[in-house]
Design brief:
With 821 residues, the protein is mainly β. Helix content is 6%, strand content 47%. The chain contains eight helices and 72 strands. The strands form 18 sheets. The protein has a six-stranded antiparallel sheet. The chain has a five-stranded mixed sheet with strand order 1-2-6-3-9, with no helix packed on it. Strands 5-4-7-8 form a four-stranded antiparallel sheet, with no helix packed on it. The radius of gyration is 29 Å and the shape is globular. The model is unreliable at 1-49 and 365-372 (pLDDT under 50).
Length: 821
Amino acid sequence: MLVTRGKLVIVSALSMTCGSAAARAFAVAALIFSLQGTARSADRSRSDKTPIANGVAVIDIAAPAGTRILIDGKDEKTREVRFERLKEGQLAQHELTARFPSGRTVSKTLLLRGGWRYRIPLRDPQAAEPEIIVQTGHFGSIWSVAFSPDGKQVLTGSGDGTAILWDAATGAMLRTFLDQGNVTSVAFAPNGKSILTASWDNPATLSDAKTGKKLHTFEGYECGAFSPDGRWVVTGSLEKTATLWDCFTGKSLRQLEGDPEARKQRIAAAARQVPRQQTEVVAVAFSADGKRIVTGEAGNQAILWDAETGKEIRTFQEHQGSVSSVAFSPDGKSILTGSWDNTSILWDAATGGRLRTFTEHSRVEHRQGAGRQERHYVTSVAFSPDGKSILTGSWDKTAILSEVSTGKPLRTFKGHNDHVTSVAFSPDGQRVLTASREGRAILWDVSNGNRLVAFEGGHLAGVTSIALSPDERLLLAGYRDGKAVLWDTVIGTRQATLETHQRDVASVAFSSDGKQMLTGSIDGAILWNPETKDKLRTFKGTVQSAGFSPDGKTVLTWQYVKGAKPFARAPVLWDAATGVKLLTFQAENRIETCVAFSPDGKQVLVGYYDGTASLWDAATGNHLGTFKDGRGRVTSVVSSPDGKGALTGFDDGTAVLWNVGTNDRLREFVGHKRRVDSVVFSPDGKQLVTASEDQTMVLWDAATGSKLRIFAGGRTGSLHSVLFWPNGRSIVSGSDDGMARVWDIATGDELCRLIALAGDDWLAITPEGLFDGSTGGIGKLTYRMKNGIVPAEKLNKHFQHPGLLARLLKGERPQPPEGNK
């Protein structure tokens, strides 16, 4: 029976919420046979065969029994809803709200296109389900480490925007704390129940160590520390100020600024040097009795404060470089500071006198190249629990254990391939932890210097570029490690790895007939046969941006131009069949950043570092016009499908659409906080997507410039590449975290992550915990259950879905069964 209500037509259908025996049986079957996907309308087979008109969209909703569904504020009694009179090519917006029996609510903005049926599963946020953990570790530098009070866990903070909790005995990841900013400082509360993360670009955050839930945020940057009793938190800022906070309320108690005139003079003196770097409080620490705080400043000094009153006690000023780290001795009688002058100094806390200078890192300094000295900044310092030794980490890639009483070095820990950024002692003093800019932390035995555990993951390389074959069968992704990976979207597996380049793969593309594919890097471009995976030919020159002409007969790259201004580059056109250079476009002594063909192949669009873009005749090399903006570097260019528009992305976080015929600006798209790395039109040109360094993508209405949806994936890193799936249902993105993600346009949900691991191993996983992958890839998966961490193999029955990627791309939305514990 149809009941028409404006544009909504409600269709009665058997569903999960019906009280019939058939519906209850279907629910039970869904729990047992999860490989068949989530519970859907019982009349699915009939509905799937029913043609849907271009002006109609249908949504099938799967939700737990008793869930109240509202669409545009109105109650829906069924789980199949029709939307009529939709405009062709436009996305109709509707609001869906689900109110679950638990009292929790989920809301989604739906963007629906006529002619489509959508599956929309809804899960109660309170539902007990295992949390999937991929043992991939950090993909960015680790800046800070800490032990839990019992020494059984390790916490690392990274520039990838996360903090990770690890098992200290096995090196397994236990939990990831997302959206933390560029984490420069981590700490455990004395009772181990909460953690503190501080960041360069986000407020400091207090989180529950067991659940990951954020408890409070503190407007402090760079660094943070707990008081010994766990009541207070101190954070450092960019303005030579430290702030004391109440842990339980999140309220500010006092600021440690010292004498106002003295602080004013310090900031003024710093401003005459390097303003930002010299005005930061970069390190903080409490004394063991909680009565004093020491802060380290980038302006070459440390300051001792009274924690109760906020008054300055004394200043330590003998370093010749910025103070990078501070620590109190366990008895509170001395203070240790590390500095960019390659030394660490032990101070008398009572008098401010220098007791000893540790210079072991500077002693291994050697000259590098033409008279250059290698820098061995001391980045981190720590006291052993008994106060008899200290540990210092340095840019020399080592950590050194030294005796406090004599200054004698006792042991050097070598094993990192990049700067050591943070060090810590275990609570029992028998182990030490070091972290490095390479994104790895290592646990060492203090007594013999042996390596015990390495905290690392799959060493994922960032995804730099993605492309889809014309038949939609192959997805090609380029990575920062010089490899390209082919994914089979029909079978849903990793098909092949192309050992392509010595440097980052900056660009990938398919020819229009799908018989050739292109990878480009700073060491050149390579033409490949997708079927045999053989190299067909190589195009010399530096390639940051490359592509095929629409007919596939020519290849467009760019290369450096001899005799022009430094770094000037010019587009180059090559014959794809012979590899012969056909045309070099005029360089104009400008730095080129990106290139693209017009849809008919008659024009070439070029973006430049100076904020302009130019249009060139592909046959003659003649200059046709310039799009001038000057707001910043052009980072990405693309022509609209009809060839009438040109879209440019900028490093100020904006994009601009231009009229190709008149060179006039049509509209501006403002919505990102950082650089736009990729721009792309939908196949029909009605929408466009901008992907950004700020870890978000924005879907826009191309005609009006209105923002339709923001896709935010959390820990993705910069989003370097994005494409529309030809049917308009999905968007695929590639990012710094080494994952390609598939997103649902209708709901904004992340559907799947594709992870290329070492060798030929791979994973496809969903946020709900479903997975597919190679045997080695599945071995990298664990789940957090009610009773602890378990390997993925134990959940194969309910969570492994062969062909998962292929099913999702077809519009299916398989879900795990409810009630897993």
